[in-house]
Amino acid sequence: MPIEAYVIVSANGMLADSSGVMPDSLKFPGDQAFFEGALDEADLIVHGRHSHEDQTRSNERMRVVLSRAVPALAPDPDHPRSTLWNPAGASFEEACAAAGVAPSAKIAVIGGPHVYALFLGQYDVFWLSQAHDVQIENGLGVFPDVPARTPQDILAASGLHAAETRVFDAERRVDLTAWRR
Fold it and tell me: Is the pTM of this model over 0.85?
């Protein structure tokens, strides 16, 4: 099953501030349009308990939410289109089956750091947007090892390579690089 990840980070690899919230300084129209379009094409969204895409169609999307609050798999009582998944108690394939998606489903991983790290060896593409003029001090890195290592170093070490890059906002130095297996 194709697995793709989507994230925007600051120059120092942060996806959120110290309180775990994505700051407005990381929100850019071109990136947000790309992100929402990608999620519209996905069959299943995968994320942690504190991540959510906050888009107009968010509640319409099928999702698997990683959680230690369940032993294996359970319906999410707060979101009828969500399945709670504890990777210690069930495989990802079992989580997908519980969510009702086919083995050929297109998967979109949208964070947080431990969720991105969990799938490092399985990504077909990791879509890394970066705001090169934004610094977030004491923030939450895209991977647990950030900022000790850059997101690019971590992606390369997992077998991905930087392929095409597109510019979302030249003036504010925001771009998107597809890291492919």
Answer: yes
